């Protein structure tokens, strides 16, 4: 299976330890199929609203990932609207860990879908991996209103386009030892780790993304857009902090 940089990056952002992975708005199912190929332990759920896509995907899954006799199915298809994600129906245990992945749709739709899932499953243990196709700041603004916390964030570049990739959660997590307790920071409008590249390549991407985003919001600011004014002010102040990996 040939996968691009963006999908590859998303696959790498999925650590072990989840019980259920949800490839929402899965379309061709490339992301979920790559995770299946990597022999993940979790149950893989493919979700899309278009029946024809799901029928085609089911054929591919049956061919590439057949279920052996006596084995439980490691993948499932759900031809539904993502707002109706059956989190509690597939696993009613409070301790079940879910990763809901929403990638490749706009920032506004990503926010709408996430908010619906979050409101309908207030007690479930869910983390979200998000990669909006556009308007990431609109998504961030919604996440700030919902009091979400940022676990990870990176930039990825593919075909001259930049994508923000965020792993977020509704519950703050302690990330350091008991002696120096520190929690994951809340999601912010501009992002934090986004501007702390660890490699020269990531530094170059962050520098060019900042330039492009600043130019975009400077244009929008002329029409009196309030978000644009906030973005311009923040990006002009932003120093891209180098935390380059030192190799011995
Ligand atoms: C551009 S594709 C994204 C594919 C893939 N996730 C990626 O990152 O490349 C968008 C898909 O989202 C699906 N979609 C849009 N709104 C949806 C919704 N509310 N519920 C389920 N699927 C939806 C569409 O049917 C389409 O297949």
Describe, in plain words, how this protein is organized in 3D:
The chain has 8 helices and 7 strands, in the order αβαβαβαβαβαββαα. By secondary structure, it is of the alpha/beta class. It has 2 domains: 5-188, 3-Layer(aba) Sandwich (Rossmann fold), CATH 3.40.50.150; 196-248. Strands 3-2-1-4-5-7-6 form a 7-stranded mixed β-sheet, sandwiched between helices. α5 links the parallel β4 and β5 (125-131). The mean pLDDT is 92. Bound molecules: S-adenosylmethionine. S-adenosylmethionine (SAM) binds next to loops.
CATH H-level superfamily of the largest domain = Vaccinia Virus protein VP39
Classify the helix fraction into a percent range.
Answer: 25-40%
* Beta-strand percentage range: 15-25%
Report the end-to-end length measured between terminal Cα atoms.
36 Å
Ligand identities: S-adenosylmethionine
Strands, count: 7
Blueprint (SSEs and pairs):
Elements: H1 5-12, E1 20-24, H2 30-37, E2 43-47, H3 51-64, E3 75-78, H4 87-90, E4 97-103, H5 107-120, E5 125-131, H6 136-145, E6 149-158, E7 161-169, H7 200-221, H8 226-237
Parallel strand pairs: 1-2, 1-4, 2-3, 4-5
Antiparallel strand pairs: 5-7, 6-7
Helix pairs in contact: 1-2, 5-6, 7-8
This protein binds S-adenosylmethionine.
S-adenosylmethionine binds next to loops.
Characteristic terms for this protein:
single chain; alpha/beta; Rossmann fold; 2 domains; seven-stranded mixed beta sheet; 8 helices; binds S-adenosylmethionine
Give a brief outline of the structure.
The chain is an alpha/beta fold and 248 residues long. The chain has helices spanning 5-12, 30-37, 51-64, 87-90, 107-120, 136-145, 200-221, 226-237, and strands at 20-24, 43-47, 75-78, 97-103, 125-131, 149-158, 161-169.
